[in-house]
Amino acid sequence: MPPITIVFIATGLIVWLNALYFLGVGADQKEGGANPLVSIGHASLVVGLLNLVQAVYIMWARPLDDASVVLAGLVTFYGLFFVVLGKTEANGWDLRVVGNLAVPTAILPLFWWDFFSGSWMFQSILIVWLVAFGSVALTTYGKLEAKILGVILAGTAIYTFWVPALILATGNEIP
Question: What CATH class is the domain 4-169?
Fold first, then answer.
């Protein structure tokens, strides 16, 4: 399996954890207990760093004129987003900063559209990410209900991260 599978699996798990939190599953802080968002934040930070390591690996392992190097730029977008998300969640900082970062993270990856020409699935994933990251921005500013964001993130974890990983794990190419 290609190294990008690590990004798919790990990032999907973190998006899933955030989805469940926004859906209210395991989100209640027990009296005298730790805030569950702190745990999710630490895990998000680790996955963000993992994404950045994978981006460096992609660039290191491939010749600079290889198309995969372009993919490393996209992985870097998400790696940096999850680093900021993780630090913000773990430290209890204002999530509007994450919402502000979600706007360019939603829009700029659309410039990879031509990179994914011939792959309807990857192009549709870019659209799902546009909606998901746009929804993060709206939620952090109180314009979208947290449970709706939770549903969007759950769908995003499944469709944009786990389905591609499962396709690759079964020895197939992503359509």
Answer: mainly alpha
